[in-house]
Design goal:
single chain; alpha/beta; seven-stranded mixed beta sheet
């Protein structure tokens, strides 16, 4: 008898749209490749846990061109996340699993330390409680397992903030549910998080790009040209022309003064090949 349905929420690993906060250091293709490897890892762990059927809940849905070339394991049921915010989509998926007579274990694909043992632990604890939650170090959660459904669990949660886990636990207390809090896991969303990623996952991911750090800024008011060294890990938003004292700021759609007035764009944009990838 199945103990639970494991539902993995996955976004298509499309260059320029996946792991966007990593694009400045990995490039759009590298960030998408890492997202693909993390999806494969999460599905592998869900299957290895062997606690019940595994479902990949996809955005966009199965059959969309964004999934072309992405190999998903045999035996994984493919469904569509559908419309609405993350809360609406999580609520829909958990309700579907519970309606089938199975507990629902909801997973993201961002946690590098989400293993089969963590999934099994959640399934083992569920018979004695209403929910199992594994916090993420950034304030969200990486795993949420439910043995019952209530839409209040997901309603009006401040998604994509450091308050998600705290607000969800408060919601459980308000409902009077018994909750087991599991180990804190670590999402890979920011460049500093890459230190936690196994080196084998990064093979072929880090771009081999020669980044230029010298740029010449030309003042649009007086035409004076100034050579400057660009920071590699930040954007320069203000620059005062030494000739006419005009304070330069980025043009609309640009991330920094180098992308607007320099002859070489800033390093993050050089890596990504897209001005929207920096500070966006």
């Amino acid at each position: 008898m199945n103990r639970a349905r494991v539902i993995v929420f996955a976004k298509a690993p499309r260059p320029g749209h996946a792991k966007t906060r990593l694009i400045p250091v990995l490039g759009a293709e590298g960030a998408a490749l890492l997202a693909r490897r993390m999806l494969a890892w999460t599905l592998e762990q869900a299957l290895t846990a062997d606690v019940g059927p595994v479902e990949a809940c996809l955005a966009p849905g199965p059959g969309h061109a964004d999934w072309d070339g992405v190999d998903l394991p045999a035996g994984v049921l493919l469904t569509e996340q559908g419309e609405g915010n993350l809360g609406h989509r999580l609520a829909r998926a958990s309700r579907r699993g519970l309606a089938a007579g199975e507990a629902a274990i909801l997973l993201g694909t961002d946690a590098v330390d989400l293993t089969a043992a963590v999934v099994r632990r959640a399934a083992d604890r569920l018979p004695a409680c209403d929910a199992v939650l594994c916090p993420a170090a950034d304030g969200g959660y990486a795993l949420l397992a439910l043995s019952r459904h209530d839409p209040e669990v997901f309603r009006d949660i401040p998604w994509s903030t450091s308050r998600v886990c705290r607000e969800t636990l408060a919601r459980f207390r308000k409902l009077g549910w018994k909750v087991d809090v599991g180990p804190t896991l670590h999402d890979v969303d920011e460049p500093d998080d890459l230190d936690r990623v196994p080196e084998v996952w990064l093979k072929g991911v880090r771009p081999e790009i020669h980044v230029r750090v010298e740029s010449t800024l030309t003042c649009p008011e007086c035409g004076h040209a100034t050579s400057a060294t660009m920071p590699t890990d930040a954007c320069l938003y203000f620059f005062q022309c030494p000739a006419c004292a005009t304070l330069l700021t980025p043009r609309r759609g640009h991330c920094c003064v180098f992308c607007s007035y320099g002859d070489v764009p800033c390093p993050p944009v050089q890596l990504a090949g897209d001005s929207r990838a920096c500070c966006g």
